[in-house]
């Protein structure tokens, strides 16, 4: 650590050292101030942001993965319902019919998702 203040690091974070005397209004000072990211505390963000772009991207990716997992579970649920319903009637389910039911369950879930999002959009007024 430099005694004169060059290249100092505090708790693993870089900080800016202002040697000049600044005469800023409180509004200007708030605009130029920085703070650590509230989620990871490794990166710095401006005063108007709460989390950094990296954390925001990770949260969006996580939300997208959770949405895809829900669709996958819903497809398996519909596929199981269709297979159970068709198994109750003779002659049973052949392998070709089983995979056709899988394709049908994917189509049912996709059409249901499109209708659901369309209804949500129409009721929200967007």
SS summary, helix count: 3
Strand fraction equals 5-15%
**Mean pLDDT, nearest integer?**
82
Tell me the series of helices and strands, N- to C-terminal.
Answer: EEHEEHH
Overall shape: elongated
The class by helix and strand makeup works out as mainly alpha
Strand order within the widest sheet?
Answer: 1-2
The count of DSSP E runs of length 2 or more, i.e. the number of strands, is: 4
Q: How far apart lie the N and C ends?
A: 55 Å
- Biggest sheet details: 2 strands, antiparallel
The helix fraction, in percent, is 55-70%
Low-confidence stretches: none
What Rg, in angstroms, do the CA atoms define? Answer: 28 Å
Identify the notable features of this structure and list them briefly.
mainly alpha; 3 helices; 4 strands
How would you describe what is shown here?
The protein is mostly helical. The chain has a domain at 60-125. Helices cover 57% and strands 8% of the residues. It has three helices and four strands, in the order ββαββαα. The chain has helices spanning 26-32, 53-87, 95-124, and strands at 9-10, 13-14, 34-36, 44-46. The strands form two sheets. It has a two-stranded antiparallel ribbon. A two-stranded antiparallel ribbon has the order 3-4. A hairpin with a 7-residue loop joins strand 3 and strand 4. Helix 2 packs across helix 3 (95-124). The chain is elongated. The mean pLDDT is 82.
In short:
The chain is mostly helical. The chain has helices at residues 26-32, 53-87, 95-124, and strands at residues 9-10, 13-14, 34-36, 44-46. A two-stranded antiparallel sheet has the order 1-2. A two-stranded antiparallel ribbon has the order 3-4.
């Amino acid at each position: 650590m430099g005694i004169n203040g060059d290249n100092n690091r505090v708790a693993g974070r870089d900080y800016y050292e202002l040697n000049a005397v600044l005469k800023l209004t409180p509004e200007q000072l708030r605009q130029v101030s920085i703070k650590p990211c509230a989620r990871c505390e490794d990166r710095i963000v401006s005063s108007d942001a709460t989390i950094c772009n990296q954390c925001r991207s990770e949260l969006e990716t996580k939300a997208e993965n959770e949405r895809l997992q829900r669709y996958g579970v819903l497809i398996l649920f519909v596929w199981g319902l269709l297979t159970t319903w068709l198994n109750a009637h003779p002659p049973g389910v052949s392998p070709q019919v089983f995979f056709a039911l899988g394709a049908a369950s994917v189509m049912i879930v996709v059409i249901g998702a499109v209708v659901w999002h369309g209804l949500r959009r129409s009721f929200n007024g967007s």
